[in-house]
Amino acid sequence: MTLRLYDTATRSVRDFVPMTPGQVGIYLCGLTVQAGPHIGHLRSGVNYDVLRRWLLKSGFAVRFIRNITDIDDKVLQKAAEAGQPFWSIAYANEQLLAATYQRLGVLPPTYEPRATGHVPEMHELIKKLIDDGHAYPAMDGSGDVYFDVRSYPEYGALSGQRPDAMAPAADGPERAKRDPLDFALWKGVKADEPADAYWPSPWGPGRPGWHIECSAMCWRYLGTEFDIHGGGLDLQFPHHENEIAQSRAAGHGFARYWVHHALLNLGGAKMAKSIGNVVSLESLEHSGVRPVEARYYLLAPHYRSVIDFTPEALSDSAVAYRRLENFVLRAAELVGDGELGDVPAEFAEAMDDDLNTSRAVAVLHHAVRDANAALTSADAAAVRSALAQVRAMLDVLGVDPLHPQWRQSKAGDLTKVVDSLVALALEQRAAARARKDWAAADAVRNQLNQAGVVVEDTAAGARWTLEH
What we know:
This protein is α/β, with parallel strands linked by helices. It has 15 helices and 15 strands. Residues 409-414 have low confidence and may be disordered.
């Protein structure tokens, strides 16, 4: 089955046909780093990480570009409030974002460009738009440069909006624009902004508009036309609409598929730093949720389904993941880690069907239910086969418990120490059971339970897990 993706531009699920056979170019709008990430942002990272992993599993070479917006109105506002240079605020939050993605098992991008590193490309693109009659410098001496929305007849096609029904673009004074809808490509010096937030340009000192940066970076790293542009539904308008307009007006084919993920809501409203209703990965970890469980929670729903965050839903999701994890750990105790196998046809069909992780996860749980029967009967051959298949599915989703990153999540750096101490206690319990001293055996088990260690007697012997 061919991978099919919902393309926002055509409002349809389309067969995915890459520009170059065997190769895929993806651009994902990254974060504006005025603050640290919350789990709404992290949904984006996880969802497109799963898409990338599935493309890799399907045999494609993937060039994955995810940008950082490190110069922006919001970054400058936060810097002013903190009394720090804007680049200091941006860099600190960029490092925090990278560490958070790493804890969630998100693969690093092929390249992660910063807006401030691509001002020359933006200048070149803006100059071409001016020369071709699609942009103009403001006549009020501000140094602003605007895109002429009416010069691009297809404006509004991505979001399905008509220009006559749109509100004015709020990124510049209307007096400086030919039309209130026109949006800023370059922003001249503002008296209330720091002196180090500007670059020289043919139109005077200034800084990039938000939209031009992504068009310039797409061009630099993926060429004038590429396969997939991703981002959240909240970016569809005006950001992605403006990217399309300025790129295609410059003669670029730009993105062939537009893939948007739905939002993560809290209390019925979009999770957003601007209104303060945010939940961070750190806060989840402090409440006892492991990063692998948070990742599973974010990927299990279909990427185009809204997630309404509640602690109860997160807890239920964590319990579901632990069922998968417990099978893998128990099976590995019986037959060893083994190698990754092939994913079953039903799983592949679900992933090829617009990346339907919800159905893929259902296939995974069904496989584990069947495999647990083989584990109960200690059928080593059947367990080995099931483990290879289950791990292959978990690997595509990035949550294989035997991956080195998640192996350490049981007890962190103390894994070996805990293993040794629990093994000693279980030896004492086994000796007590051998001499039929049931009271002593129960006492050892109870002491382990009080320490958060759950002991289970199986056909292969006693095994233990940490209570979550």
